[in-house]
Amino acid sequence: MKKQIFMNGKVMTMNQEQKECEAFIVEGEHIIKTGSNEEILAFQKDKIKIVDLRGKRVIPGLNDSHMHLLGYALSNKKVDLTHCRSLEEIAQAINRYIENEDDQYFGEWIIGHGWNHENFQVPQLPTAVFLDEISQERPILLSRACYHIGVMNHKALEMVGFSQETENPEGGHIDRLPNSEKPMGIVRESALYHAHDFIPGPEDVMQIQDLILDACQDAVKVGLTSIQSDDFGAVKSPNTVLEAYGNLEKSGALKVRMNLQMLLPTLDKLQRFIKTTGIHSQMGSERLKYGPIKILADGSLGSRTAALERPYSDDEETQGVLVYGDAQLEEILRYGKSQGMQLAIHGIGDRTMNQILGIVEGIFQKDEINHRSRIIHCQITDHAIIDKMAKLHVIADIQPGFMPTDMKIVERRVGRDRVKESYNWKTMLEGGVPVAGSSDSPVEPFNPFLGIYSAVTRRNFDGEPKAGWYPEQRLTVEEAIGIYTLGSSYATFEENSKGKIQEGYLADFIVLDRDIQTIPPQEIKGVTVEATYIGGECVYSHEETRQK
């Protein structure tokens, strides 16, 4: 097998027994030795390739524990409304999109994403009447940044079949005009997901493969070597997603290591999927593995659909949405467990997290501590929830990159008394909760250095507040990198092969443009990647990286 020596680096190993080294040897896809330059060069033989790291900081490859890779790829085909600060700017963006549209990727539908009315100069939700002014001939659907609320024009409402006679679907809501049953265009949770079922999308396997490869190329540029992705919701058939990833893995084209999170929201869908595919968690190769089933148990804070124990502070008429009753959710999770499936449940509100933890406690025996069930998001917590997560060995999949956006609204949504025990990542780590780092892209960018910056500084991207938002919850740089390496690897039962630069581990690592451990924290968000290696192969290289 091919051997390579990497030397002259400032290598953060994430191995507590040897935190730093200068050099290491890679044989095939694995690291076989670490040490000083002198120690490693003593193993030099003829024809061994030497890579000079030129004193650069090297860290293990970063691992996003929850995102939507195919959703990210598809978002590049939609109207990007991320930077809109008014309804007028939304209209302008859609009209530009229509003028420059090369092909109708989603058929006649106009699909937009990323708007956040909390960022508008005048915070207000778009409506069907507003979208009708843009087009009455083509259906329009715009998803908010959280992807838990959307707005449709009347053409789209008609095509989906939402009318004044339509009842709210289970786990969702169709907003109505005042003193009327007529839909106003705003749809939440399962109502939004139902609308998506009517939108044409890529069904050709080759087309989906191209989308995946394009997204992976973007990912390696920011240092992601492993991705745990929830992609079943992006297309009509999960089997198409499985086939696309399988083809890429077999052909060797899939460079990023993928772990697939499988969105199967009903017992019927879960049973049919398992019976037809025979898949269970941890099946697969080092390049492509099948991960947990994914369940959406509530909504988001931005749309006030995250389920809370007490009403929202800025809307006492609502406590959010529990998508499932206790018995229904338990039936799905219990069946998943019986079929060898790891469990990953979306939970943002404290009511949802208590529901999930109560069910997990009931279906796992006290000695079944290695189930590694996961709660994705874990935003509105309290000390009792955190203590119970630690007791039950439940993993918290957090998104530090949410904080710069959420800090603008969360105190208004839930009040300071609840916020002070929420987004408590330091408390989680110190309390023994396994924590994995992620982006939830395309909700937020998947650049992990934005998440690391947020976790370390507790500031927004303008550097505010200078003292940090609840600064007692700041993580150290090592802790923040740890949740994107050690934590994310633990979440997929791969902590003995990923997340460290250590003998026997996969040679997945990245070379940075500056020393993330010594630069001012405010600079972390600007760290860039000079080279990304996966299995010892350079899959991305900046021109300043020199090999000899």
Automatic annotation (TrEMBL):
Keywords: Hydrolase. The keyword Hydrolase applies. GO terms for molecular function: hydrolase activity, acting on carbon-nitrogen (but not peptide) bonds. Residues 49-540 form the Amidohydrolase domain. Pfam families: Amidohydro_3. Coiled coil: none annotated. The keyword Hydrolase applies. This is Amidohydrolase 3. It comes from Alkaliphilus metalliredigens (strain QYMF).
